[in-house]
Amino acid sequence: MENSNCMMVAALDFGTTYSGYAFSFRNDFETEPLKIQANPVWMTGSSQFMSLKTPTCLLLDKDQKFVAFGFQAENMYAECVLDNVQDDFYYFHRFKMYLHSNKNITSTMVLEDITGKTLSAFDVFKLSIKALVNHLLETLDKRGTGVKHDEVKWVLTVPAIWTDTAKQFMRSSAEEAGINPDKLILSLEPEAASILCQYLPITKSEMGFTVSKIGTEYMVVDLGGGTADITVHQKVENDQLKEKHRATGNNCGGTSVDSRFFILLEKIFGKQLMESLKKEDPLAYLDIERGFEAAKRNIDPNNKVKVTMTFPFTTLDKLCKEINKQGLETLVKASDYANEIKLHGDKIRFDVGLIVKLFKPSIDSVISLMKEVLSSKNTKGVTHFLMVGGFSECNLLQNEIRKSFPGKRIIVPKDAGLSVLKGAVLFGHRPDYIKSRIMPRTYGVMTSLPYDPRKFDKKYRVLMDGEERCDKIFSLIASVDDSVEAGTKVEKSYFTPLPNQEKMDFNVYVSTEANPCYVDEEGCKHLCTPTIEFPDICPDKRWVDVEFELGNTEIKMTAKDRKSGKEIKAQINLLHP
């Protein structure tokens, strides 16, 4: 993709909890790379709390047309509930994790909104991305930059641990939102943060370490709202980075702590009450969410004072009396947490030890992932941890990691929550920052070969056009954990099993094993079926030369008909209906 006709690069960070954008002009990148502008401060509404990102939530009307995104969507939906017109609207929030947890992503899958109404997931993601794009273009217009949509190179961030299908779902959503496919690239979140940190000055306490020194190896721990995404990079020549360990992670991001907090409230007040609060007074529910979000960032385990939150006392007390026939205070005193929770006016106060327990499973999971990565023979040279993402700003998490890895240095950049966003802008200007990547899975194509009883299992023996062949063979393209330079091309040749074929299907498979023999072995999964259509019909069997481009954030495929020398369109579509 050429940068020459793009005046600027804009990155969209579509997060589990919060989303935002940042951009920089091509001329600025060449002279002052860190001159990156984040989106202007988003106002939350009545509380006038300011943020450089906005919540990932979407409000649509009954005709499924866009109404609002972010803080504005939160506040407008709360007003709809107060006016008792919420049934005329769709309200979605924190829906990105659906792409991580769902093992069967399709183009027709649906999402449930906060009240259980369903809508196409594709539309929800598309309209959310479009809202961010439009907000950015309006900002540029107000500033009089003169930059048009088609003069922007767009970068969309995705977790490195996501499947190929989840990544394509995001790309397709962005394209449907109006972004030109030729001006859109995906950036893997931990990579983006790692790129940014090549430029950042290290604090005085970290003197003696610089990520710009050739040969330096460090672990990138990207902890967002939804996922923990961990990889290891080594600095090599020409300001490039080499991936030393493939991305590893799970869903132990910041929202996993939120989930446990709301389970705690369910234990005290009952699940029915919390569900009623969410549906009947989402503004009160939102106040609790925002209150806990603010409280959890500032928890200090060494400070034994209580964690205090403002609570919608009147609303909760009324619901407690309606549903549980007891007041809020009575329920708290009767709960298993009576000694750890105290009410004081419109404030609720928790013992810090109780809140720390809510964090423990997530922190333990992050530390376990880090130990797993460090146990690899390829990561023995790691001396530092680079912690980025919103959840990494949590003091409690940082303290526990320091305790668990006393021999390592920990670097948390200023505004760690914006590291991915700003790094993605740099990646857009220069996609060759990453020299090589580790293959996350084994890739191959299903093929058939002349049957040889000494080589093949007889259960795969089939007759094709009168010839004995072995079917369902896994023809290897690249193996899991292989180090592959960005843009590596792997060529394979296949021929049509039958004469007069108008088209040819390629069944692409992935596997967790390094070298599977057959596509139906354990660990193998069908990924997609690119179809090649021949411009003419040939009575003979014909050869097709297929080229796979590996080592980038997305896999590409091109094909040529050997007989005519013509390049045949081969589209890898991972999204099944």
Task: Describe what is shown at a glance.
With 577 residues, the chain is of the alpha+beta class. The chain contains 14 helices and 34 strands.
Radius of gyration: 26 Å
Structural class: alpha+beta
CATH architectural type of the largest domain = 2-Layer Sandwich
Total number of helices: 14
What is the fourth-level CATH superfamily of the largest domain? ATPase, nucleotide binding domain
Kindly report the CATH topology of the largest domain: Nucleotidyltransferase, domain 5
- Measured between the Cα atoms of the first and last residue, the distance is 29 Å
Main sheet overview: 7 strands, mixed
Tell me the strand order in the biggest sheet: 21-20-14-15-16-22-26
The total tally of domains equals 3
Keywords: ATP-binding, Nucleotide-binding
Family: Belongs to the heat shock protein 70 family.
GO molecular function: ATP binding; ATP-dependent protein folding chaperone
InterPro entries: ATPase_NBD, Hsp_70_fam
Give structural notes:
This protein is α+β, with helices and mostly antiparallel strands and 577 residues long. It folds into 3 domains: 8-200, Nucleotidyltransferase, domain 5; 254-356, no CATH class; 439-568, Substrate Binding Domain Of DNAk, Chain A, domain 1 (Sandwich), CATH 2.60.34. The chain is built from 14 helices and 34 strands. The strands form 9 sheets. Strands 21-20-14-15-16-22-26 form a 7-stranded mixed beta sheet, sandwiched between helices. Strands 1, 2, 3, 6, 12 and 13 form a 6-stranded mixed beta sheet that branches. Strands 24-25-23-29-30 form a 5-stranded antiparallel beta sheet, with no helix packed on it. Helix 4 crosses helix 5 and helix 8 (271-280) crosses helix 10. The longest helix has 23 residues, at 352-374. Keywords: ATP-binding, Nucleotide-binding.
